[in-house]
């Protein structure tokens, strides 16, 4: 018997990388900005440190978003905790730390934000990252609705599914491949996440027939957003959530 995919109450809009462009990406300050704006949901990226702890960070290396250098996967927790994630991105947020998943989960819950946790494994750590992040989510959100969990890595999602049979999963592709149903069904995924550019109506029809909500990144223009919602896209990730919020409320 095929078990149904776990469902998840989708909002129309997710602030991308916590607070979009309004705060340093993947930070607690971004979560606060998103909540103050009135966003119901945020997306952020999670990778493992050298100690196997999940931290919010997008790149495999530290240089672009922090004042550190080197590979995240080779950096121990004690050093990640000292880094400044504000100074290179948004000097007004200097001193803003790189958060752990635990800190982000606690703040999301306190602010009432739904979360899309994107598993962003360093190369070679796909399955380990999927397993560790899924287990951590089970603990961190144990007495409330779990976040939606997505990844470009099938291996990461498969490992997450092994340890968390009810976790809502999103298959993330730049463009969904022609045979998207095979990995989607194998994972018992809930949603498909993809770039807004090149999204075809044929795919939207097929996804709708499969009961798969489609979520698109990264949309910063209110007219483009309204057109995507009209075409049947369920939700959007945005670096400019303040521009899309009024229209998102109309489509909710
Ligand atoms: O999860 C949607 C989007 O965040 C995927 O791309 O590179 O911004 O993590 P990226
Ligand atoms: Mg992401």
UniProtKB/TrEMBL annotation:
Identify the EC number(s): 3.1.4.46
* Keyword Membrane attached: no
Q: Which SUPFAM superfamilies does the UniProt record give?
A: PLC-like phosphodiesterases (SSF51695)
Q: Which UniProt keywords apply?
A: Hydrolase
Q: Where is the GP-PDE domain?
A: 11-248
Key word Protein biosynthesis present = no
Query: Entry's PROSITE patterns?
Result: GP_PDE (PS51704), PIPLC_X_DOMAIN (PS50007)
**Gene Ontology terms for molecular function:** glycerophosphodiester phosphodiesterase activity
Q: Name one GO biological process term.
A: lipid metabolic process
- This chain belongs to the protein called Glycerophosphoryl diester phosphodiesterase
